[in-house]
Write a structure and sequence with these properties.
The structure holds two protein chains of two kinds. Chain A has strands at residues 4-7, 10-13, 19-25, 31-37, 43-50, 53-57, 64-70, 73-78, 87-94, 105-106, 110-114. By secondary structure, chain A is mainly beta. The chains are: A mainly beta, B mainly beta.
């Protein structure tokens, strides 16, 4: 009955590889997000999707591409991984943007280590 | 642009005591939401409490309360009767209402350690 789930939990890979992180929410939310938490614990939004449409795209290298097959899923694909991509990536979801008290609920995080 | 400042990198408190974690923010928006999240050592982000900028009363959720002082642009988290399980990183965040609260900006966090 996990609300927001991510797979994998840990991901260790070599520089230059391509990898994907999957996210699913069963809360019936319309908006999903990807955040990156760096080694100093700083959290920054990367992308936001509302009902399968991209609504926020912060300054993120175009090696990162989000894909939303339906409103319950938001996957993150990363091409040509670099050492600086090592971080914890969090998926989150909230109700339809535009309402009040739209709390974002986070997944457990995916710890990516690029060697 | 929004900015969140958490000036306390770390705080220590004894079990059963109350503790206040500071958060100040800067925004030109008139309508916004303020949020606190907890991140234990296991890594997940747990939502604790929300305060809307137009809410006249301070938000409370169990042992958590938010001391909201709009004129000072502060939104301090108060944890009453600390428990060992409260040891974690705490993040203050805000989002403007015009974005549907979708653009959360986080502070750098405060590490809270609760001792027996």
């Amino acid at each position: 009955d996990t609300a927001v789930s991510q797979t994998p939990k840990y991901l260790v890979t070599q520089m230059g590889n391509d990898k994907s992180i999957k996210c699913e929410q069963n809360l019936g939310h319309d908006t999903m997000y990807w955040y990156k938490q760096d080694s100093k614990k700083f959290l920054k939004i990367m992308f936001s999707y509302n009902n399968k449409e991209l609504i926020i795209n912060e300054t993120v290298p175009n090696r990162f591409s989000p894909k939303s097959p339906d409103k319950a899923h938001l996957n993150l694909h990363i091409n040509s991984l670099e050492l600086g991509d090592s971080a914890v990536y969090f998926c989150a979801s909230s109700r339809l943007a535009g309402g009040t008290e739209e709390t974002q609920y986070f997944g457990p995080g995916t710890r990516l280590l690029v060697l | 642009a929004q900015k969140i400042t958490q000036t306390q990198p770390g705080m220590f408190v004894q079990e059963k005591e109350a503790v206040t974690l500071d958060c100040t923010y800067d925004t030109s928006d008139q309508s916004y939401g303020l949020f606190w999240y907890k991140q234990p050592s296991s890594g997940e982000m747990i939502f604790l409490i929300y305060q809307g900028s137009y809410d006249e009363q301070n938000a409370t959720e169990g042992r958590y309360s938010l001391n909201f002082q709009k004129a000072r642009k502060s939104a301090n988290l108060v944890i009453s009767a600390s428990q060992l399980g409260d040891s974690a990183m705490y993040f203050c965040a805000m989002a403007p209402f015009r974005s549907g609260y979708s653009t959360l900006t986080f502070g750098k966090g405060t590490m809270l350690l609760v001792s027996p």
